[in-house]
Design goal:
- It is a single chain.
- This protein is an all-alpha fold.
- The protein has 6 helices and no strands.
- It has one domain: CDP-alcohol phosphotransferase transmembrane (TM) domain (Four Helix Bundle (Hemerythrin (Met), subunit A)).
- The chain is about 80% helix and about 0% strand.
Length: about 190
């Protein structure tokens, strides 16, 4: 791992942040004619999330910056889009609060571990699942697929469960990393 910033995988993560801007702007117009464009932009953003980590590993471009920018890009893009959808009444505010609080606590814990141990905690598989389920929920919320409201309700429930589980995974890892530090202190 190295300190490079301008790698293909990191540029994909940065692109995901940039794509959030037109998606949010178009969503705010609430024009049904723009839904296809929103869907295309969402698919491109999802592909950047799929390929950034994969390319980083395959091209040997795993960087400290990449470990940080990938989850931050997810949080910015999903958070901004979800807030707009919630303001339009298409997602409940309690869910958005859950997403944002979880992300703030995870980021604060990550910063703490980075400062104390100089370790960058990477995303975990449950966190990736949370992003996936929330992304599906966002798509179903944007497009108001009539006749399958039950699926949106199911995604909302599964999303809440996966958010809580991913938080527990992050918290467990955080505690383990911090305790390792304390164990080293007690052993010396």
């Amino acid at each position: 791992m190295n300190g490079r910033i301008w790698t293909i995988s990191n540029l994909l993560s940065i692109l995901r942040i940039i794509l959030a801007i037109p998606i949010v702007a178009i969503l705010q117009t609430n024009n049904p004619a723009d839904r296809l464009l929103i869907l295309i932009l969402l698919i491109i953003a999802a592909l950047t999330d799929l390929f950034d980590g994969m390319l980083a590993r395959r091209l040997n471009q795993v960087t400290e910056f990449g470990k940080i920018i990938d989850p931050v890009a997810d949080k910015i893009a999903i958070g901004a889009i979800a807030i707009v959808i919630a303001l339009q009444g298409k997602l409940p505010f309690w869910f958005i609060v859950l997403v944002i609080l979880r992300d703030i606590v995870i980021m604060a814990g990550g910063v703490y571990v980075k400062n104390k141990k100089n370790i960058t905690l990477q995303s975990n598989i449950m966190g990736k699942w949370a992003v996936f389920v929330i992304s599906l929920l966002i798509i179903f919320s944007i497009f108001d697929f009539y006749g399958i409201l039950w699926l949106k309700t199911l995604l909302l429930a599964v999303g809440a469960i996966v958010l809580v589980l991913s938080f527990v995974f992050y918290l467990t890892r955080f505690i383990r990393v911090i305790r390792e530090d304390k164990l080293e202190i007690h052993q010396t």
